[in-house]
């Protein structure tokens, strides 16, 4: 398990150049190996402007190294950014480099290695927003006012069955192929990333998580914890504790990001404007 960045109860982030835009965020990341795994193959980054969760695959150190490769390439992107201008192209390049790193790691592994990755990048272009990205079945959720939504769309066999009307959404997590993803970084595949833009709004809250959370807790439980409006740190810890109490069958990693203030952001609903987003 690799972690980059530390929690923050309050941090102001200014827009680029002479821009009057500024955003105040709070965030926290909590992870646990769970009750059945021997190794935590999740990795996480909370280094503004980049927040992300990677869930490694490949068994033991292979999955751990794969998720770490994704986080390290995203950390390079965060370290190089001073303008709030990380866009889809730069994220594509970073994730492609990560995929190549993973392929090198897995060169002599018969089953290969890979990782899912999902996250949100704070951007000020053309207006303050979160650029949400996803490969695989880790997820990003948003809570804006009373509107709770899953922002990302799973890349998995069961999600394809749900989309085709062949499987009820409530039955997806118990399906025998619930762990089979259709996109990942690694496995000699070119990354295919989906993107969404969510305009910032004061009070909005993001949840980033590996599937170790969503396989244990239904969406109504997730909404309940986010809507309780405890601090980001308390909320992340409560979600992990709830997943462990519900079974803890997998590694579980949670990142909560709160928008405390947003100067220069739009006033309309972030969910209504951003949920359709742009898809890669």
Whole-number total of structural domains: 1
Strand content: 25-35%
CATH fold category name = Phosphatase 2c, domain 1
Q: What is the name of the CATH class?
A: Alpha Beta
Percent range of helical residues: 25-40%
Structural class: alpha+beta
| SSE string, helices as H and strands as E | EEEEEHHEEEEHEEEHHHEH
Low-confidence stretches: 266-280
State the major sheet: 7 strands, mixed
Helical stretch count? 7
Measured distance between first and last alpha carbons: 28 Å
Mean pLDDT value: 89
Q: What would you say the CATH architecture is?
A: 4-Layer Sandwich
Task: Write down the overall geometry.
Answer: globular
CATH H-level name... which superfamily? PPM-type phosphatase domain
Q: Topology of this protein?
A:
Blueprint: E1 3-4, E2 8-14, E3 22-32, E4 42-47, E5 50-57, H1 61-80, H2 88-105, E6 114-123, E7 129-135, E8 139-144, E9 147-150, H3 157-163, E10 185-186, E11 194-199, E12 205-209, H4 211-214, H5 219-227, H6 232-245, E13 252-263, H7 270-274
Parallel strand pairs: 1-4
Antiparallel strand pairs: 2-3, 3-13, 4-5, 5-6, 6-7, 6-10, 7-11, 8-9, 8-12, 12-13
Helix pairs in contact: 1-2
